[in-house]
Amino acid sequence: SQQGEEDPQALSIQEGENATMNCSYKTSINNLQWYRQNSGRGLVHLILIRSNEREKHSGRLRVTLDTSKKSSSLLITASRAADTASYFCAAFPGGTYKYIFGTGTRLKVLA
Amino acid sequence: NAGVTQTPKFRVLKTGQSMTLLCAQDMNHEYMYWYRQDPGMGLRLIHYSVGEGTTAKGEVPDGYNVSRLKKQNFLLGLESAAPSQTSVYFCASIDQQGKSYEQYFGPGTRLTVT
Q: Does B10 lie at the interface with A, CB-CB under 8 angstroms?
C-alpha cells in the first residue's frame, strides 16, 4: 500500500488536555505536512516540516520529525472542542512528485 | 488569489453517465493532482500532472481520465460512471518554486453515482 500509517486511528479527550498523533512513513522524504479536515469539509494545511528540521511550532501545535525512525508526531496542547476533526499527515518522498497520505486520526474533544 | 477552485461542488450521476470535473489554480503551480476520499478513509491519488501537457497515473487510476491542456487547469473525466466512484474528489497543486513543495487543496466535489 502507498498509504502511510497513523496512530491512533481515533482519540477522544477532554477539553484542555493535550492530544498526540503519530505518523510513520516508509521512504526518505523531502518534507512532511500535517492537515486538519473537519467532517464533510476540505483539508486545511497546518504545518510543513522539512527533512532537515526536527521540530516546528505554530500556536498550540507542535510537530516533530525523526527521519531516522521515519516518523512524525503532531501535538495539540490545551485542546478545544473546535479541534474535533480528522488529522492527516502527508509525506513527500525525495525524487518523486507525489505526497503519500496517512490513514488519518479522528480526534474528538469533549467539552 | 482564489487559490485552488473546483467545479462543480456537488453532482449526482446515473450509472453509465459521463462527466468532467474542473480544477483551476491561479498560483502558477506546475504540479497538480486529483485525489478521491471515501467515507472514513484517507486520500488516494487518482492521476497527477507535473506540467502542461503531461499526466501520469496514481494509485487508483482505473475508470478515470485526465487532461492538462493549460497550466492552470486540470480536468478529471469519468467516461462511464459506476457506483464505486461515489466519493469526494479533491484537487490539489504544489508550490514547487523555492522548493517548499507545499500542497494546496481545493474545497472538493461530492459525487454520487446511483
A: no
Residues of A in contact with B104 (CB under 8 A): 45
SS3 category, A11: strand
CB A6 within 8 A of CB A88: yes
- The DSSP bridge pattern shows strands A10-14 and A105-110 to be parallel
Q: Which of B54, B50, B81 is nearest to B67 (CA)?
A: B54
Q: Is A41 on the interface with B (CB under 8 A)?
A: yes
Per-residue pLDDT tens digits for B75-102: 999 999 999 999 999 999 998 776 678 8
The predicted-structure confidence for A4-25, as pLDDT tens digits, reads as follows: 788 899 999 999 999 999 999 9
pLDDT bin (cut points 50, 70, 90) of residue A2 is very low
